[in-house]
Amino acid sequence: MPHKLTKKKLTVHYFEYLILNDLIISFLALSFSYWFRFNSNLFDLPFGVPSFGNYVLPFLSIEILLVVLINREGLYRIDFTKKFVDHVFSLIKSIGLAMLLLLAGTFFYRNTTYSRLLILIIGFNLSLFLIVSRLFWRLFYAKNVFEKTKKKILILGKPETISKVIEHVDYFNRYGYIIGFVSTRKSANGQMGQYIGSIDNFNDILDKYKPDEIILSDLEIPRKAIINLILESEKRLVTFKIVADLFDIMIQKFEIESVDGLNLIKFKESPLNFAYNRFLKRSIDILGSFSGIILLSPVFFIISLAIKATSRGPIFFSQERISEEGKVFKIHKFRSMYQGAESKTGPVFVKKDDGRCTLIGKFLRKYNLDEIPQLYNVLWSEMSLVGPRPERPFFVEQFKDDIPRYMSRHHIKSGITGWAQIHGLRQGTPIEERVKYDLYYAENWSIWLDLKIIFLSFFALKNAY
Question: Going from the N-terminus, what domains does the chain have, and what CATH number goes with each?
Answer without folding.
Answer: 2-146 (no CATH), 150-243 (3.40.50.11060), 273-457 (no CATH)
